[in-house]
Specification:
Elements: E1 3-7, H1 9-17, E2 22-28, H2 34-45, E3 49-53, H3 55-62, E4 70-75, H4 82-92, E5 97-102, H5 107-120, E6 124-128, H6 137-142, E7 151-155, H7 158-166, E8 171-175, E9 181-182, E10 192-197, H8 205-209, E11 213-216, H9 228-245
Parallel strand pairs: 2-3, 5-6, 5-10, 6-7, 8-10, 8-11, 9-11
Antiparallel strand pairs: 1-4, 2-4
Helix pairs in contact: 1-2, 5-9
Length: 246
C-alpha cells in the first residue's frame, strides 16, 4: 500500500476524523502545545501508535521545518469519482456547485483554493492529472486539512469533463480578466461550475471555448491581476452569498 506523510496540526486533525487509513503518529517530545497532546490522545483512542521524536527527526520525516510538532504516516490520498459525486448531489436534490482548476501548479494555491471551496460549500474540486499539481503533503498542509472534507476529483481530459458536467444541466463559467461581464452580474443560484485558470496563462483557449460564459472580477487599483487563489475565493463566495439567499 502506498503511503503519504502528513504534517501540521489541522491536516493531522482532519485525517484523524476522516476515513483514510493511518499507520502511526509522530509527535515532538518537547514543548507544551495542548493541541499536540489532544491529537495524541485521539490517535491512542483509535488504536493508532504514537511515537515521540525530536524536532529534528520530525523535520526529516516531513521534509520541512513547518510541521508544527506533528507528523503522520497514512495511506495515500484517494481521489473521488466524478460520476459518484454527480449522482450523489443530483439525487439529494441540491444544486450542483463545482470548482474546476485548469492547471494550478503551486501547492499553496491549490491548497488555499480547496480550503476556500470547503468553506464556500463547494461539493467537489476537479483537477487535471497532467500539467497541474496533485494532492501532496504540502497541498494538504496549505488546505488546513480541507482535502479530507471536500471531494477532490482528478481527471485526464478537462474538456470532456466539462461536457459531462453540462449534461447535468449545470452552467460552466470561466474566470478571466478579459471578460465583458463581471461576476456580480451573473446569477449563480442554479447548477453551476466555476473554472479557474493556472497562475501564468489562466484558462487555456480550448477550455474557454467549452465554458458557457466568461466572467471578470472588477478591479479598481493599478495591479493588473489577482492571485489565482484570491480570485477563486472572491467568485466562490459571491456564488455562496447568492445561493444562501436563494
Amino acid at each position: 500500500m502506498k503511503e503519504d506523510i502528513l504534517y501540521g496540526i489541522n491536516p493531522v486533525r482532519e485525517a484523524l476524523s476522516g476515513s483514510r487509513k493511518i499507520f502511526e503518529l509522530f509527535v515532538q517530545n518537547s514543548g507544551s502545545d495542548r493541541r499536540i497532546s489532544k491529537l495524541a490522545d485521539i490517535a491512542k483512542e483509535k488504536g493508532i501508535a504514537v511515537r515521540q521524536r525530536e524536532r529534528a527527526d520530525l523535520e526529516k520525516l516531513a521534509g520541512t521545518p513547518h510541521h508544527q510538532g506533528v507528523v503522520m504516516r497514512t495511506a495515500s490520498f484517494v481521489y473521488a469519482d466524478l460520476e459518484d459525486l454527480l449522482d450523489l448531489v443530483l439525487k439529494s436534490g441540491e444544486k450542483l456547485f463545482l470548482l474546476v482548476l485548469d492547471g494550478i501548479q503551486d501547492p499553496q494555491n491549490l491548497g488555499a483554493l480547496i480550503r476556500t471551496a470547503a468553506c464556500a460549500g463547494v461539493q467537489g474540486v476537479v483537477i487535471p492529472k497532467d500539467r497541474a499539481c496533485g494532492i501532496t503533503p504540502a497541498v494538504e498542509k496549505a488546505s488546513a486539512g480541507a482535502v479530507e472534507t471536500v471531494q477532490v476529483i482528478q481527471i485526464t481530459n478537462l474538456v470532456q469533463t466539462l461536457e459531462r458536467i453540462k449534461q447535468t444541466g449545470a452552467w460552466v463559467f470561466g474566470l478571466t480578466g478579459e471578460a465583458d461581464q463581471d461576476i456580480y452580474q451573473q446569477n449563480f443560484t442554479g447548477h453551476i461550475t466555476l473554472v479557474i485558470g493556472g497562475e501564468g496563462d489562466g484558462i487555456r483557449p480550448l477550455v474557454r471555448k467549452h465554458c458557457d460564459g466568461l466572467l471578470a472580477i472588477p478591479q479598481y487599483g493599478g495591479v493588473a491581476s489577482l492571485n489565482a487563489s484570491v480570485a477563486g475565493g472572491i467568485v466562490m463566495f459571491e456564488a455562496a452569498r447568492q445561493r444562501s439567499k436563494a
